[in-house]
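We emphasize that the prediction below concerns an isolated chain of 223 residues; any contacts that depend on oligomerization or on bound cofactors are therefore not represented. The input was used exactly as deposited, without trimming of termini.
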Amino acid sequence: MKICHYDFSKPFDICNGVGVLVVENVNKFVQYCNDFVAQQNGEDGCFIIDDGDKAFSFKKNGCILFDFFGLSLCDKKIISGLYDQMKSVVDDEYLQEYYELRGRMSEFCDMLSVDSPIAVEYDADLCVQDFLKAMKVKPIDNKNSFAENILDYLDAQSRFAGTKLYVLVNLLAFLDDKDYALLMTHFAYAPYSVLLLERKQCDRVDNEPMLIIDNDLCEIVAQ
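Result of the prediction step, given as a token string:
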């Protein structure tokens, strides 16, 4: 995957699932953040994502994150994608059992309607997703380490919401060397790419690609 911008002399390659973009100029840093947020909302922005031969929509397949402490697997997109996948399981493996369950639920509603003080009706064709929602089916947030919680969230968003590119803003300020190395190893084998958007340069752990835009807006490629 390549990140293109008119500020860059050439596309910035994300290798082994990760790239680090350091923007020391605060005004430019804010501009880049605003651009990604705008594109996530479906508005125009200055970043072009090259994902091979496929057209890439940051609104559909991208995500920018600023808050790493409030991440939850009970995100609406994750739950919606989970319900869709569970429906596929029902269709393939448990369709008869689901129809029997729905029939018993209809019988129960019929019994209740007899004793209702007013006439009532109900939807007998309850879809799987509505049933799961009524049962409050949701992922369990594991109480792992800070870094592991981030990876759990990124993996779930990728699997259930189709996210292919994450822009993580100033994440490295919260990681020690061990956690940073853990993330780099995980990203190398993940089905998505990660752009670390940082204000300050950091030490690399595995020669991950790093592009620096300094205070004078000069472009520096870390060697």
